[in-house]
Specification:
The chain is of the alpha/beta class. Helix 1 packs across helix 14, helix 2 packs parallel to helix 4 and helix 7 crosses helix 12. It has a seven-stranded parallel beta sheet with strand order 3-2-1-4-5-6-7, with helices on both faces. Strands 10-9-8-11-12-13 form a six-stranded parallel beta sheet, sandwiched between helices.
């Protein structure tokens, strides 16, 4: 078994709210922690969390210690900036950490130890037109700026794709040598074809799902381009064939909630509300069943640093249509049909083709099965853990006081 233990090294990991399971960043954090626990020495791992948000599981780090951060995630933007940029480094020094890793789009201007952050994407910098509902005040802009542009001071920035790596280099002016792309994984033990009729009958009844439907999953954020999916679907042959449209994703955060409400109104305005189901997050087991019984999975996002959802659909043996922009072609390869996210007719055409051509469907399902095998949390965890070790060695080799 692959092992990389060193009893003299102390590693801090800011797990944030890893107890939540419905968002891409927490999927990343949870899966990586559980794989890292098979690699490293849990005696020397400190799991940092917001007060009152300690996880009820240790992710396999049996002898790790949970330590609360000295501030709350409920604080306002200005107080958060002070805490993240001043209180954070102070705690890291007091804990005697050799390296601290932040898995979710946070960085510091200064750290007393080696500092590694994962920047999943730089959407608000690269596409501010798509982030207005999130960063809509001066204080929020300052908070985003402090968390993002301080990445140039990190010992290493990890990101999810070569696309995002170039975005970080270009938009944040980070030294290319300090940005590393590590592809994420898919948990194939969770995401697989589940055609169990008992499960399906329960899930279909619970969520009032049509017998046949195309599916999109993810949040209701503006960059997901869900209105365009509804428009493309409304012009397709699918409704005439009795195929519905189902959307699943978190709708509780401010930007998501607004997006959700706008989609409800839009479906009503074009008279297809009865054909469209807009669902909030659902339990993972139910989501797998919803994936497995879908006719087509569609991702029309205008910006993605990686792209979990089409890979999850592929793992569940569903053919996919995705946007031809950002990281999606890199992630999906030849296992997807591609369409222009700015042209509804492009998606309509692909929906009609994939909905009716059984030979093409079978071909894409097989290509998807092979494509998913390229993405492993085990591989991602080994590369990430090695990066933490490397940054400790580099930091320790520097003269005292240098960063």
């Amino acid at each position: 078994m692959y092992k990389m233990k060193n009893n003299e090294l102390s590693i801090g990991i800011n797990i944030g709210k890893a107890g939540k399971k419905d968002r891409g960043i927490t999927v990343y954090t949870r899966n990586l922690l559980m794989e890292m626990a098979k690699i490293g020495d849990s005696n020397n791992v400190t799991l940092l969390h917001y007060p009152g948000s300690a996880s009820d599981e240790n992710f396999g780090f049996e002898n790790s210690r949970f330590t609360p951060l000295p501030y709350s995630d409920k604080d306002g933007p200005i107080k958060t900036i002070i805490n993240e940029q001043i209180t954070n480094p102070s705690q890291q020094a007091n804990l005697g950490l050799d390296v601290v890793w932040h898995p979710h789009n946070r960085s510091q201007f200064y750290s007393p130890c080696a500092y590694v952050c994962t920047m999943h994407d730089v959407l608000p910098v690269a596409r501010p037109d798509l982030a207005g509902k999130y960063i809509n005040s001066l204080s929020k802009k300052l908070l985003f700026w402090s968390r993002t542009f301080s990445a140039a001071n990190a010992d290493m920035v990890i990101t999810d794709s070569e696309f995002s790596r170039q975005e970080i280099i270009n938009h944040l002016r980070v030294d290319p040598k300090k940005v590393k792309a590590i592809h994420l994984g898919i948990n194939r033990g969770t995401f697989h074809s589940d055609k169990n009729p008992e499960n399906w009958n329960r899930v279909r009844s619970t969520y009032d799902l049509p017998e046949k439907y195309i599916l999109t999953t993810g949040s209701y954020a503006p960059h997901k381009n869900l209105r365009m999916i509804i428009e493309a679907y409304s012009h397709s042959n699918l409704m005439e064939d009795g195929v519905g449209l189902v959307m699943v994703g978190p709708n509780d955060a401010t930007g998501y909630r607004i997006g959700y409400q706008e989609l409800v109104k839009y479906a009503e305005s074009i008279g297809i509300s009865n054909n469209v189901r807009l669902l909030p997050s659902v339990p993972e087991a139910d989501l797998v069943s919803i994936y497995s019984h879908s006719h087509i999975h569609v991702t029309a996002s205008m910006y993605e640093g990686f792209g979990f959802t089409p890979l999850e659909a592929m793992a569940c043996k569903v053919p996919v249509i995705v946007s031809n922009v950002s990281a999606l072609p890199e992630v999906c390869g030849e296992a997807a049909l591609y369409a222009d996210p700015y042209d509804p007719d492009s998606f309509t055409e692909k929906m009609n083709i994939l909905g009716q051509n059984q030979n093409l469907r079978s071909e894409m399902i097989e290509k998807g099965r092979k494509q998913v095998e390229e993405f492993s949390w085990d591989k991602c965890a080994k590369q990430t853990w090695q990066t933490l070790q490397d940054m400790i060695a580099i930091r320790k080799s520097k003269p005292r006081g240098a960063q």
